[in-house]
Amino acid sequence: MTTLFAPRLSRRSLGRLNILGIAVTALALLLPAWGQDKGADEIRIGVVMPITGREAKPGQYQREGIELAIKQINDGGGIFVKSRGKKLPIKEIFYDDGSDQSRSAGMVERAMSSDGVVAVLGGYSTALGEAESVMPDRYQTPWITPGAGATTVFSRGYEYVFGTLSPIDLLGSTTAQYLGNLVDKGKLSKGLKVALALENTDHGIDYGRGIDNWNHEHPGYFNVVFSEKFELGATDFSGLLQKVKNAHADIFLADAHLQDYITMHRQYIQSGMYHQMVSYGARGPEADARKALGAATDYIFAGIWWSSRLSYPQVKKFNADYQAFAGHAPDSWYPATAYDAMRILAAAIEHAGSLDKTAIRDQLRKVELKDSLLPGQVLRFGKNGQIAGSFVIVQNKPEDKVDIVFPLDAATGESIAPKPKAH
Amino acid sequence: MSAADLLNLFIAAVLLAGVYAAMSVGMTIIYGVMKIVNLAHAGFLMLGAYFVYEAYERFHIDPLLGVLLAFPVFFLLGMGVHWLLVRRIATSDQPTLTSLLLLFGVWLVLQNLGYLIWGNSDRAILTPRTLSSLEIGPISFPTVRLVVFGAAVVSLVVLEFVLHKTWFGRSVRALMQNNEAGQIVGVNVERTAQVAFGVGIAFAGAAGGLLAMLYSFSPDFGATFQLRAFVIIVLGGLESFGGVAIGALILALAETFCILVLPASYQPAIAFSLLVVALIVLPDGVAGLWNKRRRWA
């Protein structure tokens, strides 16, 4: 009679199998300990940023901000961890997500599951941040995004998700508030018509909602006469711009990524369009855009999370340190939110007094960074894990000059409104 | 919307068709002769953009002249890639998985080479032409798009001339129509395929240079255009250069005018809906329809 099972094992073979089983079990039990040992004299931090692909440039700047903070902390001996009774240096585990959503989530998962990190910094751009944000609670590892600000990332009740970008709808409402201030100052007329062209992402949706909310709360300032979404990376905007033209608006507000900003504004200029004020959301002062568009970027205004022209002493020091570290001056806001993300994480680890990830998460909820680079100078996370700081509005001026024009107490120059017709 | 606005949009669509045709020709030549879908096309578009950019930045060579210079350089590059890699793929009358994988790999290598050499900055070419327009009454012609359109038309005319009036052109057409019959009448298949691959890459490089005049670019550049080139050659009929021009025009008109009634975010959906429609209704493309009508006549 045949049997479904292999021939019976002898007692000796069973004994050998038992020994093998015990060895494998012991190895399995020892491996995590070995992993911890490997990181015992260092604090492993995962960094997942795009340094290739369409978000490569901002991703690179954010990486530089994080690495500058790590260097400064390590130069000071590291972070004091009470449970170890000594300062431990930070070891960065870096992954390039190639600006790809699925790869981005995969890299965060890898860092959290296999690399023994105590936290991950990652997610430049809302789309990549959204993909990454599902991992932290799964692996109970704190994750701080310095580059995703859409409310969808922070509205799902996650416990381990934090962000150093203020919400995008606040960017929209600050933009509208700035324009309202220009109306109050008599630089723009009341009741002007606004056309909105928004990228078809949560970023674009939040930006539009912020403008709508402000308009709703302050009736009579503006009328939104056109609002439409466009796809990222479009090859041609002539149809969309024709619709904007037909709307006969006085103000044109778009929310776009860098490449779309360049392509759209080139076509805007070529078609001879003019609006009293023009903005591309958080884009405007970037060096790459100014090289691609030249004087056509003059008088464009942008709402950004940080400006190197803020007058705080810590900003001046950061500008000098960053220049020395990266070999170039900060380009727009990108490195600052990343630098502060790393610093607030370091503060949370020190307050936690151990490398326990839940303890670090608990401290991230309480800790305050009192010399933050960001407007307001104090960085703390809200209940949903996102900060709720303010924005600065900057305006490009001729000869590559960029001024902070709003809020007024931080202004470094006057708003030029309406913008001259040649532009 | 006024008649002038509609005319402006029509002109914008025609000029966009020029851009699309320029970037699709190279892919068509290679598919026609070798039945290879060149997935590295985007990589060569990107290299062409950087070639023209470097010529402009380092040697102050006008981008249009840079495009002309790109042609022989990329022709030799294409011949080299064929000699080194593509000739080793077994010939077939259908695209093979091997060829797709090989050329996809070449694309990745080119992309990473781009990152190694140029980093991840967005580059752009800014000349006095970039933002200027030619105004004729209420009609506006963006100068740089006009230049690209002119270059695309010239490319297609020269290609048509070469294909119909030279031995190489006749060899190419023979292989496109019937590979085995071509061999019987004395066409050197390997040599013709190598030259055709070189010409295809030369067109890709030159098209990349033309696109660099319109868009900012990084080593990641080209993927969006490659997808559209694929839609165009399917619409046009895979092996027809006249079909490429018509396919490009259909896509550009559809994308531009559909946006007047649909949200702009539907633009990619328009392109891919056209692809699906073409595959179901016109599997041989516009050229196939044209050939059928000629046969009936």
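The first helix of chain B runs from residue 3 to 34.
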